[in-house]
Amino acid sequence: MRGAVLQFIPIVERTTQALLPVASVGWGKGVRDRPLYVQDGDLVTDRSITPDGFSRFLIDVFEEWKRRDIGTVYVQMFDVALATWYGEPPSLCVHSETCGLAVTLEHTGDLYSCDQFVEPKCKLGNIRDHRLIDLIVLPQQQAFGRDKRESLPQYCLDCDVRFACHGGCPKDRFTSTTAGESGLSYLCPSYQSFFRHIGPAMRDMTALLRAGRAPAELMTVYATEDSRRGRNDACTCGSGRKWKLCHGR
Length: 249
Description:
Elements: E1 5-6, E2 14-15, H1 20-25, E3 43-44, H2 53-68, E4 74-75, H3 76-86, E5 104-105, E6 110-112, E7 123-126, H4 132-136, H5 139-150, H6 154-157, H7 162-165, E8 175-176, E9 182-184, H8 188-210, H9 218-228
Parallel strand pairs: 1-4
Antiparallel strand pairs: 2-3, 5-6, 6-7, 8-9
């Protein structure tokens, strides 16, 4: 694993009420008369992660990483977040302000707007008939990329962690806000919890970077804090468990 980069991708399988029975069985070749999977519907399969489940996973990993692995284990989600807090544009399309640069080429030569949208409405053309660059700059594709920013509901625009989240991937924006506005990410609860949780650590690491120092120095600070923490204190991860039964084990 030396030098590896870890990427955590939450499974969110969208489906409609009509397709839910088929989707629950699966989309593989073994499913008879299986339909084409498209980004449609406001339901998810039982295999999908819960709206707040991704944050629990990310926070648990982050709590371990910030104490032991800064500078030696590189987790893409954390690296992207640090870049954002530092003022650099995120390299991960999921949390970029716009998208549309990660097109997908099929073996037939068909080009699609994104690997998450390999479906008829997002087909740009075929490279046997057009140059790749000409397809990428099509108004259809440019609009696809801008829509990630321009379709955000007001709830997202007012969010304190929008600068780091940017609404997540468009494929997951099929729920509604409490005000009834559509276009909210299914994973919004997870993204809010995660980015708010890591905020203090990201600010500390950013300060170290701006001072020309290594973010890994932060591990020493946490080691000191942990040594002073009571075994029965609440764990820093926010799980509600005691420190001795959670990340203090």
